[in-house]
Design brief:
The protein is mostly beta strands. It has one domain. It has a five-stranded mixed beta sheet with strand order 8-7-1-4-12, with no helix packed on it. Strands 5-6-10-9 form a four-stranded antiparallel beta sheet, with helices on one face. The longest helix is centred in the middle third of the chain and has 10 residues.
Amino acid sequence: MASSISRGRKDGCKDSIGGLQKLYLAQFTPYRRNAFGFNGNVITSIPTTFVHLFELTGNNTFSQSRNGDGYDQTLTVEFRKLDVQTTLQMMTLNYIELRALVQDRNGNWFILGLENGLESEGLTIETGDSRSSFNGYRMTLKGKETLSVPFVSDPFTNGFIDVSDPTTEYYQFQDYQAVQFQDGEFFLFN
């Protein structure tokens, strides 16, 4: 009987760092699987997706576990300091399906909620009780995917567009389609 195991693995370097350093979120849009370009478990292209940067500090992780019929994905993030605008934004994120592009502290990019999206499993707003206590938002996003979380090759040349810059106007149609003008600029029509 032929073996399905093709190779072993040596102990990895001790220079890897746990946690996430960047988080980009987009409202989930369902696509057919053939809309994504893959090379093994690496996404090489994705339909144009406008993403918003959420700066991370503190304890930010994602985990994935195999269950009988797929993979459970969990993204846990913290955002420091409470303010009115962020509270409104967090409340919105708490009620919509999302897709997340994350970069770990080793420089690897991953996409969570690729085919089925992520939903909020909880939003906590904390004031803390001392100067050293956490003051901000904690959010847990969960999703269930058929395939393992894919790596993403060079996300901002393969379909992701960062629309976080407040000095640039972006527009998006209601059907979430991107528009590229003759000067090469992308816009989101609101």
